[in-house]
Design brief:
Order of helices and strands: EHEHEHEHEHEHHE
Helix content: 40-55%
CATH superfamily: NAD(P)-binding Rossmann-like Domain
Oligomer: single chain
Distance between the termini: 35 Å
Structural class: alpha/beta
Strand content: 15-25%
Largest sheet: 7 strands, parallel
Amino acid sequence: MSQSIAGKVVLVTGASSGIGRAVARLLAAEGATLALAARSTERMQALAEEIGGAPHIISADLTDPKEVERMVADSEERFGQIDVFVANAGIYVPGLAAEGNADDWDRMIALNVNGVFRAVRAVLPGMIARRDGDILVMSSISGHQAIHWEPVYSATKHAVQSFVHGVRRQVAKHGIRVMSMAPGMVLNELWGFTDPGQIEERIAARAGLRSEDVADACLYMLTRPRHVTIRDLVMLPQNQDL
């Protein structure tokens, strides 16, 4: 029997757009209590007005270690605990290694890797103390195979995969589940898709996923019975062939 997300305190990073926004909308509709973190306060406030339920808004740049600590501490101070952490914030930098901007790589690694590692470290003590909690990290199909047009991005997601698998085995004895969601092409801002018509064309061609598709899968993972861990969920558009 599935479990309900209603009443659980869920911290979602990267909540102002794309998958994070879709996750926030869906979990709000399911009755979760939300803490939403991203850099764009204005966009998060608009989302809060849309979904209702008075989510807690945290403006934070998760490339900054101090901001990561503040985000978690702020959420715990507001709600007393974090039941579920959805580590979704990330950026995408493709390109050739010989021509890439190494500063852009550093920022991507700081957010996609270090930001995730530090945030998970920060939420774990409370979960361990309660012997309960879920951590869902947004990975990518790029974490399961090295994609040649995005080698550094692929490297960040491979790092995430290794981290998730190692941490899961460390904390399972405390009743904590650690899971990885790995979508293929998602038709949202991160990958440069903003035109509704173009998105619908891609969907009709089965060449992309909606953010809402990924959010639905995240909800499925989080609502499995406590004895079930969806270790990795890889989802692709039907016609994506890598």
